[in-house]
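Figure caption, in words: inputs first, then the predicted bound structure.
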Amino acid sequence: MLLKDRVAIVTGGSQGIGRAISLRLSAEGAKVTIADVNEEVGLKTAEEIKAAGGEAIFVKVDVTNPEDTDRMVTETVEKLGSLHILVNNAGITRDKLILRMTDEDWDRVLDVNLKGAFNCIRSSIRVLAKGRYGRIVNIASIVGITGNPGQANYSASKGGLIALTKTVAKEFASRGITCNAVAPGFIDTAMTQAMPQKAREELIGRIPLERLGTPEDVAEGVLFLASDMASYITGEVLNINGGMFM
Ligand code: NAI
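Bound structure (NAI present):
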């Protein structure tokens, strides 16, 4: 058990990549708070973890609201006893070419993907520092490094998240907290299932490992960075993309 007696928060943990991360951390012994706006699906994921013998709670949280993220940490400590691991996974897309992108498209994506992570980090950092074992893992994206037409808002939010990762790593290293990012390529979830079939096939043709990634592929990387095995790694970006970008 790599995470015995550890307590983790996974934002956006109800479905997709966040669900896979929650299940994987739990399978290694962590108690997990699923923090998500989607209560119906999040409660089911928490039940799934409990049915497998793990411990989990669901807390309804909009990461753009600092009062929600404060409550997420308070409830976690009250109900699960502590906090060691924060996974900032909640994210959205509103893809459009720049000339068609509205202020609202820009603001909403930056608010959820970048400010949301900042809110969660600020709400958690004192508790993480107190335990002198903190692991923050931010789910960025390949397009935060490479850019992508139609994703000015999304790629900027993910590039910003990588810069935030490095700053948090530097500010809190002396407190025993590491902060790293994972940059997935194209992962088979609701977010990418919306793509037309032809575009998906073309995309797979550009991936050296010849398939889309799975949520579980991402969860393995997060588990590594959240564990003792990664105790000397901080400010790093782990690419999980089948070789699409090296
Ligand atoms: P998804 O859409 O399946 O799941 C996102 C989760 O975040 C949902 O449960 C949703 O309810 C939650 N969420 C959305 N807004 C929220 C808010 N304001 N507060 C709290 N929770 C909120 O997406 P998926 O594919 O699982 O993505 C997870 C993360 O991985 C995102 O940050 C995404 O940008 C990133 N990612 C996904 C890739 C992909 O190919 N699917 C590739 C690279 C990165």
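The mean pLDDT is 97.
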